[in-house]
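Sequence, please.
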């Protein structure tokens, strides 16, 4: 029996229980309104628990969706055999997202002008002011700079592009912007979503193709790491070709503090995601992160307020729903760190700012060893030469 339903059937039945089976990171980047996030492997246990607490749960129609509606077909059939009225959304989140661009609603979505006004007014303090503060604090822009604003299609890079446009309106000194999209081998559906969001937001883009996905398709060990490294190289190369001296990436405050903890707990090292970096392979090029002080919750608020929908990752692996993150994957580790921070916040509301500030207050006198410019320094190197009459414990 076919356990699939169409997008139109979904619209016509508002009483469905809609379950997003993707991981929490993907769900937070964008989801179908009214859906709840229950990871693929946990859906069965979740429904059994719900049916024990509420007898009507087993009788209710349940819609499951993943990225492309591939993984949930088998799951819907399995759960149906166990007595649940489960269906798989045909085409998954991507199909719903494409339909959402054209679907006529009683209340039209905000247009480009309204979205830009929201940045200037409602989100000025939480987004634009922090964007400008990071650029000023870390001296990210200088007169005459030409910046390649790198757009991946997710919420972070999209709001970064809009914030750069707003900054350009003020134009305290001359600088140029190029809004750059790299197509590493997207499916046509994913590419359409990225380009249509750019059009909706009024972002003029320059797009170029690479074969990165084909290159990493058969890599078993750390394909995401290799993909990220290759992406960075192609972005630098294209930006330089376009006459840019900087590339801008959309990493935000939460990325920074999570990276700090991930380095300590999984990498046995103390380091941070720097606000700007000189390229080691492309002379004269620099990477900047102007979203450095912006909180992810505020980006989500802007997205939801303006009824915008984005994709998390358009790579070939997640697109076909064939990979389930392992406990050793970067995504899984990052989710663990997110949960850890949320747990710590319950007892200490300042834990996030303390993590962020910790790498600004490193006392080398109390560090066993550290690396600087490739050289390792150990406290024993100068220990015996210290005047004990001046030293303090």
């Amino acid at each position: 029996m076919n356990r699939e339903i169409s997008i139109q059937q979904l619209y016509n039945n508002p009483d469905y229980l809609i379950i997003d089976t993707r991981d929490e990171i993907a769900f937070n980047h964008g989801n179908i309104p009214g859906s709840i996030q229950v990871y693929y492997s946990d859906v069965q246990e979740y429904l059994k628990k719900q049916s024990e607490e509420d007898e009507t749960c087993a009788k209710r129609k349940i819609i499951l969706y993943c990225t492309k509606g591939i993984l949930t077909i088998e799951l819907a059939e399995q759960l149906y055999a166990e007595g649940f009225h489960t269906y798989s959304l045909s085409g998954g989140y991507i199909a719903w997202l494409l339909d959402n661009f054209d679907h006529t609603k009683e209340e039209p979505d905000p247009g480009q002008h309204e979205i830009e006004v929201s940045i200037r007014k409602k989100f000025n303090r939480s987004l634009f002011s922090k964007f400008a503060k990071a650029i000023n604090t870390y001296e990210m822009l200088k007169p005459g700079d030409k910046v390649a604003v790198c757009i991946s299609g997710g919420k972070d890079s999209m709001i970064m592009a809009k914030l750069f446009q707003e900054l350009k309106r003020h134009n305290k000194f001359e600088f140029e912007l190029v809004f750059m999209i790299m197509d590493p081998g997207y499916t046509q559906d994913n590419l359409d979503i990225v380009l249509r969001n750019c059009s909706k937001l009024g972002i003029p883009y320059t797009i170029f193709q690479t074969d990165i996905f084909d290159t990493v398709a058969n890599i078993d060990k750390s394909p995401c790491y290799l993909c990220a490294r290759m992406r960075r190289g192609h972005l630098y190369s294209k930006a330089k070709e376009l006459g840019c001296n900087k590339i801008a990436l959309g990493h935000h405050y939460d990325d920074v503090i999570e990276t700090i903890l991930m380095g300590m707990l999984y990498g046995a090292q103390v380091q941070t995601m720097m606000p700007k970096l000189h390229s080691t392979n492309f002379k004269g090029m620099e990477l900047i992160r102007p979203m450095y002080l912006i909180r992810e919750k505020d980006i989500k608020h802007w997205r939801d307020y303006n009824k915008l929908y984005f994709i998390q990752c358009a790579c070939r692996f997640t697109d076909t729903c064939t990979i389930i993150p392992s406990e050793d994957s970067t995504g899984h580790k990052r989710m663990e760190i997110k949960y850890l921070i949320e747990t710590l916040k319950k007892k200490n509301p300042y834990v996030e700012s303390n993590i962020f500030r910790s790498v600004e207050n490193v006392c080398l006198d109390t560090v066993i060893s550290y690396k600087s410019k490739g050289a390792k320094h150990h406290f024993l190197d100068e220990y015996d030469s210290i005047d004990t009459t001046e030293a303090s414990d």
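Residues 208 and 238 are 8 Å apart (CA to CA).
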